[in-house]
Write a structure and sequence with these properties.
The protein is of the alpha/beta class and 250 residues long. The protein has helices spanning 19-30, 46-57, 74-85, 109-134, 157-177, 199-208, 217-228; strands at 10-13, 34-39, 62-66, 91-94, 141-145, 183-189, 239-242. It has a single domain (10-245), classed as NAD(P)-binding Rossmann-like Domain (Rossmann fold, 3-Layer(aba) Sandwich), CATH 3.40.50. The protein is built from seven helices and seven strands. The protein has a seven-stranded parallel sheet, sandwiched between helices. Helix 1 packs parallel to helix 2. It starts with 9 loop residues before the first strand and ends in an 8-residue tail after the last strand.
Amino acid sequence: MIDPQLRNKVALVTGANMGIGAATAQALAAVGTAVFITYLGSPNDAKAAAVVSNIHRQGGQAASFAADLAQPAVIPTIFDEVEAAFGPVDILVNNAAYSVNDQIETLDTETFDRHYAVNVRAMALACQEFTRRRGERLGGRIINISSGVVEGAPTELAYSASKGAVEVLTRGLAKALAPKQILVNAVSPGPTDTGWLTPDLRAELARRTPLQRIGQPDDIANVIVFLASAQAGWLTGQILDAGGGWHMRF
């Protein structure tokens, strides 16, 4: 078995009480990483507690913190909480996202601003705080989550625009942080079964995917763990298509 060399590292995974974030937290913990998750909800959120409990039951280290990433002031607080629990962050996974359907006739300021605040501004501020706290220490990984909707989604205009910004920021940050040996990449999932699919839509999307199935959260988590691993030490500024060929459907 290849050793990803992630034992005793510390990871911060945002939006991780369910779906891709939860799967990523558990996958990182399984290779020896101490995992700190954030989520939107109450301090006693049952889903977040279950993620932490599952990791503890398997002998891993995990803790959680409720945070609304639309509030910029919470970003330094999150890093304070991680450092108090496990020490400085080595791996930052910007997974948290806000998404509601819209179209040009219904798009409004509040909707657009919320997408920007969570999906773009919070991501950028978390990257900034991560970099600041690394200080003079070289190394570290930032992994952002994009989406296949960057191809253009007429019923998800604000969301697709925000994910396009994530990809642009990923490339810019990779160049900016290269002197610090901080590697910055993004993962772009295709349709992934995180609870939003109806049976009919699941079947239709599977039919249109070259590998003929819908992605599972674990599929994306495995790619994220790879990007955090020693084996991905020569990758930066990349947007990895993790959609079973979704982007090349025809």
